[in-house]
Amino acid sequence: MKFLQFILVISLTACSSSNDTIKIKGSDTEVNLAVVLAEKFHKNNDELLVSVSGGGSGLGLASLLNGNADIANSSRSIKYSELDLFKHWNIEIDSFVFAQDAIAFVTSDKLPIDSISTENIAKILNGECQNWSLLTNRNMPITIYGRQSNSGTYDYVKNILNIHFSPYAKQMNGNAQIIEAIKVDESGFGYVSVGYVLKGNAEGLKILNVYHGNSKTISPLDAKAIASGKYFFQRPLFQYYKKRDYKKIKPFLDFEKSSIGAKIIQESGYYAVN
Question: Which residue in 186, 208, 251, 263 is a FRET match for 180, CA 20 to 30 A apart?
């Protein structure tokens, strides 16, 4: 055990990023948006390079811990178990919410359904509802397309619905894979970040309106509903960082907060933080 701790100490102290590069890793939901922000930032700040990669929220936080990232993109709050690891190594962290996201539930555009309740979403995802005949006039097994367990979106949907996912759900690497799978599978049902179904990506898909209890149906594309917090599946998008690195990453965080950053966030299909 002491030997393993020694190895981890070496990795935590040896893997420091250079001062002219900000490494961002983590959430697949955030990766495309972060890439665009990084590209625009670099045009006016060419002395500071921002590199972006995905892999999931869990990977991003692990990379922040071991020194392989300066910023961890996470589409969920940090878990207590992860926070304990940072505390164990006396690493103080902080977070910044740079955008809001809405989760879109999608099917093939050939399926005769336009809206769905949160109750029925839960029943599909936990495997209780296995055939579209319970919700439509189609007698067809439902194929669930979801994310892997290291995904922040996976955790978010699981926790907000208080469910365990069906063991038969197909675990996809990212939002884009879910979208492409459902486009060719009329029986498919999946969840993706709303930013991934905009700008032509929604062709062949149906983005379902959602209602909770007796509330009215709301589209994840309804910016006014998101701004007022009325859509059931909306969430903050986090960036975690070590407090000691704040001075280094501050120029990029400031850019994300700026009017230019807010415009990029909105044009990318996400919602700026007011």
Answer: 263
Mean pLDDT of 2-12: 36
Instruction: Pick 201 or 32 by higher pLDDT.
Output: 32
Q: How many domains is the chain built from?
A: 2
State the sign of the Cα–Cα–Cα–Cα dihedral 219, 223, 224, 230: positive
CATH number for 242: 3.40.190.10
**82 and 55 co-located in one domain:** yes
pLDDT band at 162 (very low <50, low <70, confident <90, very high): very high
Chain segment 184-231, per-residue pLDDT in tens: 999 999 999 998 887 667 899 999 999 999 999 999 999 899 888 999
Asked if residue 244 and residue 218 are part of one domain, the reply reads no
Question: Would you say residue 67 lies in a domain?
Answer: yes
Question: Element (H or E) spanning 49, and its range?
Answer: strand 49-55
Give yes or no: residues 190 and 262 share one domain.
Answer: no
Dig out the tokens for 119 from the structure: 């109750």
Q: Which amino acid is at 121?
A: I
Domain that holds residue 165: 102-227
Are 49 and 90 contained in the same domain? yes
> What is the Cα 7 distance to its own chain's centre?
31
